[in-house]
Design goal:
With 184 residues, this protein is α+β, with helices and mostly antiparallel strands. The protein has a single domain, classed as Jelly Rolls, CATH 2.60.120.10. It contains 2 helices and 11 strands, in the order βααββββββββββ. The chain has a 6-stranded mixed beta sheet. Strands 7-6-9-4-11 form a 5-stranded antiparallel beta sheet, with no helix packed on it. A hairpin with a 4-residue loop joins strand 6 and strand 7. Helix 1 packs antiparallel against helix 2. The chain is globular and about 50 Å long. InterPro entries: CDO_1, RmlC-like_jellyroll, RmlC_Cupin_sf. One of its GO terms (biological process) is L-cysteine catabolic process. Belongs to the cysteine dioxygenase family. Keywords: Dioxygenase, Iron, Metal-binding, Oxidoreductase, Thioether bond.
Length: 184
């Protein structure tokens, strides 16, 4: 099971996160729901990368699974900002989302595999992949229309920043909607 941690942020990190959080909160108030994930994606591109965003502790990964550090949780539970640390070879399960999301590759590079939902078979079928280099960002809506799997195939650690439309305490349980892979 993946466990989220709350690691202390640096002073610079708190300031940057405050700016990003305020921009996302404004976007939630002003943006139609169908455009919100892309608007948050644009906010991440506009504000990141940023020097001092993560503390040394927030850059730590775990040997056996990717690590999730909660960086900011909106006080009314509208969204949560999370740093994911990926050591070489680490990956997510194949999943859609229970909520909207946006992410930014802060360091390193990631691979994103895409899958199409087969409602008759109730499983996911591979349909492509894309490289996500440092500085790239992506977003998706809730549901099974944008199923994916993220992985770090490089020899170096990668770090990504994710924003989910869920409150902080539920980020470990109410984000990923796991999908079974279709038999070969």
């Amino acid at each position: 099971m993946l466990i989220s941690t709350v690691a202390p942020a640096s002073q610079a990190g708190r300031s940057i996160l405050g700016d990003v959080g305020a921009a996302i909160a404004r976007a939630i108030d002003a943006t139609p729901a169908e455009h919100l994930p892309r608007a948050v994606c644009d906010i991440l591109r506009d504000h990141l990368p940023a020097t001092g965003l993560l503390s040394a502790q927030q850059r730590q990964g775990q040997e056996n699974r990717y690590t999730r550090h909660v960086l900011y949780a909106h006080p009314q539970g509208l969204f949560t900002i999370v740093a994911l640390v990926w050591r070489p070879g680490q990956l997510t399960p194949i999943h859609g989302h229970y909520t909207w999301c946006a992410y930014f590759i802060l360091e390193g590079e990631m691979q994103e595999e895409h899958f199409a939902w087969d409602p008759a078979a109730q499983c996911a079928r591979p349909c492509g992949s894309v490289e996500r280099p440092q500085g790239d960002a992506a977003a998706s809506h809730a549901g099974m229309d944008q199923i994916h799997r993220l992985r770090n195939d490089s020899a170096d650690t990668a770090i990504s920043i994710h924003v989910y439309g869920v409150d902080g305490p539920r980020v470990s349980t109410h984000v990923n909607r796991i999908a079974e892979l279709a038999p070969a």
